[in-house]
Specification:
The structure is a single chain. With about 250 residues, this protein is mostly beta strands. It has three helices and 13 strands, in the order ααββββββαβββββββ. A twelve-stranded antiparallel beta barrel has the order 1-3-4-5-6-7-8-9-10-11-12-13. A hairpin with a 4-residue loop joins strand 3 and strand 4. It is globular.
C-alpha cells in the first residue's frame, strides 16, 4: 500500500503544479508545452520507445514528464515493464540539467521478474544533462533502479540496477554529426527471500562511435561497438548496437 501511495502522491503533486501554471497563464499555455518522441532499439532491451513532455515556467526552467515503454522489448517478460516519472529542468548556458523521479510498473525489481507485475515495482531517481552548442552535442544520464516493493516467494530476490551513459559528438555539417558513446548496466544487488543479498553482476559495458543525421527537430542516430564486460560474467551477451529515431514537437 505504501508504494502505491508514494507513486500517487508524486504524480498528483506534479499534475497540480503544472495545472496551477496553466491556470495562471491559460491563453498562452500551449506555447509553453513541448513534446518529444524517441524510438529506441538496442542489443539488450530491444524496442523501448520514450515519450517526454516539458512545460516551460521561464526561459531557464521547466517541469518535465517522461514515460518509457520497456515492455515493447525484453521488458514484456518483466510484467510489461513500464516507467513513468516527473522532474525539473534547469538551463544553465549550453547545458540542460534535468533531475527526475521515476517509478516502474512490472516485476523486474520487486521479484526479479518471477511474480506478476505490480504498480510501484520500483523507484528510479535519475539525472539527465544535455549539452548543445553550434559545434558540440552531448548527453550524460545516470539512473538507479531500486525495488520499491518485495513481492518475492521463498528463494527469489528483489533486483536493483545502475544504468548510466555518456556521449559527446561534433556537428560536422548542419545535418550530420559524429561522436562516441559509453554505456554501462549492472545489477547492484537485491534482497533474497530467506536471507542474504545478491552480489553485483555486470550486464554490459558498451563503447563505440555513433553517426547522426538530423533535419530540424527530427533525426536518426546509429551507435555501435563492443561489449567490454567479461564474457564469462556478464548477463548481456550481445555486441553493442543501438538505433534511435527522435522527433520534437
Amino acid at each position: 500500500m505504501l508504494r502505491k501511495q508514494l507513486f500517487a502522491t508524486t504524480l498528483v503533486a506534479g499534475l497540480m503544479f503544472i495545472s496551477k501554471g496553466v491556470a495562471q497563464d491559460a491563453p498562452s499555455s500551449d506555447d509553453k508545452l513541448s513534446a518529444s518522441l524517441t524510438l529506441n532499439h538496442d542489443a539488450f532491451f530491444g524496442f523501448n520507445p520514450m515519450m517526454a513532455l516539458s512545460y516551460s515556467l521561464s526561459d531557464t526552467d521547466a517541469l518535465t514528464f517522461y514515460g518509457i515503454q520497456w515492455g515493447a522489448g525484453t521488458g514484456s517478460a518483466w510484467g510489461q515493464w513500464t516507467e513513468f516519472g516527473v522532474g525539473y529542468n534547469k538551463t544553465i548556458g549550453a547545458f540542460d540539467i534535468n533531475p527526475q523521479l521515476g517509478f516502474t510498473m512490472g516485476s523486474l525489481l520487486s521479484s526479479g521478474a518471477s511474480q506478476p507485475g505490480i504498480i510501484g515495482d520500483g523507484i528510479v531517481p535519475n539525472l539527465t544533462v544535455n549539452l548543445g552548442t553550434d559545434l558540440l552535442e552531448g548527453q550524460f544520464y545516470f539512473g538507479y533502479y531500486g525495488a520499491l516493493s518485495d513481492e518475492t516467494a521463498a528463494g527469489e530476490a528483489t533486483n536493483n540496477y545502475v544504468h548510466y551513459w555518456a556521449n559527446l559528438g561534433v556537428k560536422v555539417t548542419e545535418f550530420f554529426s559524429v561522436g562516441g558513446h559509453f554505456e554501462e548496466l549492472f545489477l547492484s544487488g537485491g534482497q533474497i527471500n530467506g536471507g542474504g543479498e545478491l552480489d553485483r553482476v555486470d550486464g554490459y559495458v558498451w563503447l563505440g562511435p555513433y553517426v547522426q543525421f538530423q533535419k530540424g527537430n527530427a533525426g536518426l542516430r546509429f551507435s555501435f561497438g563492443g561489449n567490454l564486460a567479461d564474457e564469462d560474467e556478464r548477463f548481456a551477451p550481445n555486441d553493442f548496437y543501438k538505433l534511435s529515431f527522435f522527433i520534437s514537437l
